[in-house]
Amino acid sequence: MKIKILSTPLQGFTDFRFRNNFDRFFGGIDTYYAPYIRLQNDFLIKSSQQRDVLPENNKVKELIPQIMTNNAEEFLFTAKHVQQLGYNELNWNLGCPYPMVTKRALGSGLIKEKNRIDEILKRISSESDINISIKLRLGYENNREILDLLPILNRYKLTNLIIHPRIGKQLYKGTVDLDTFRQCTEDTDHEICYNGDIDSTEKFLILQEKFPNVSQWAIGRGLIANPFLPAMIRNNDFNKPENWIETFDRFHDALFREYAESLSGSTHILLKMKSYWEYFSQIFSNPHKVHKGIRKAKNVNTYHETVKSICRDYID
Fold it and tell me: Rounded distance, CA 264 to CA 270, Å?
């Protein structure tokens, strides 16, 4: 079975600069999802979110915008906006697990409100021709929430369901619930995409053996922690390529340059790049030491020296 690898978004990390450079240096991704659009008062879209989905800013093969909402009017407004930009699909985020989101009945906090979801989808389906896909968890409080929701979702034409098999209250802790995920694959009429904890070729192969009928696989945090992973999975490789550190170094420098051109001041760019190293450090054999060294950098010059020193340690 031919697989399709998707990149799920991380707010604050996987913007168009990251996506373009990832695609340029690493590849392996069929479809990228943009971080969610969340409308402000008076149906305003933040300028940064508008820029992120502008076609002229995106060089990847396929990009799908995403929305975070619990309101049909907001969905319809955003659908029209992205359609005017040339997109034909909008992904609905019902997966975000963070309490500041879920307590407002957004993200995974909305899953238990199946009748509300039904009403929203009913309006969208009757008033817009945009394709809809949904990223969701098993629920927020318990895994029955998605099982109660699936019969409602089966009434609608959806491109796919990207399911992360944890509940929202877990955040990213604990183990994924593969039994409930399996039940979801049996109870839905839609294409199912697996998302969650794919961080190695070995783990992917184990999951693929468990779910041979699943052809779509989504990677989120694992994509930043090991940018080589999609290509490794495609090539059935268990190790990074021999020249991985040189490729990573070039990717890092290109990403830094683009942020330096767009962000205001060295403090801002330093904070931005340091945030990535929470994930980047995991590609190295001593992630704690690497991350600690990056955190200690007080200015851009020291930061660059630290990065070059880290990379030199891995070049033969």
Answer: 11
- Separation of alpha carbons 231 and 241, rounded Å: 10
**Any alpha helices (H) in 188-220, and if so which ranges?**
201-210
- 316 pLDDT above the threshold of 60: no
Tokens of 59: 């060089």
Q: Name 151's bridge partners.
A: none
What tokens were used for 208? Answer: 């693929």
pLDDT averaged over every residue in the chain: 97
Distance CA 81, CA 84 (A): 5
HEC-encoded secondary structure of 50-118: HHHHCHHHCCCCCEECEECCCCHHHHHHHHHHHHHCCCCEEEEEECCCCHHHHCCCCHHHHCCCHHHHH
Structure tokens of 21? Answer: 């450079």
Chain centroid to Cα 264, Å, comes to: 26
Instruction: Report CA 210 to chain centroid distance, whole Å.
Output: 23
pLDDT at 314 over 90: no
pTM above 0.90, yes or no: yes
- In angstroms, the Cα distances linking 227 to 7, 24, 239, 277 are 11, 11, 12, 13
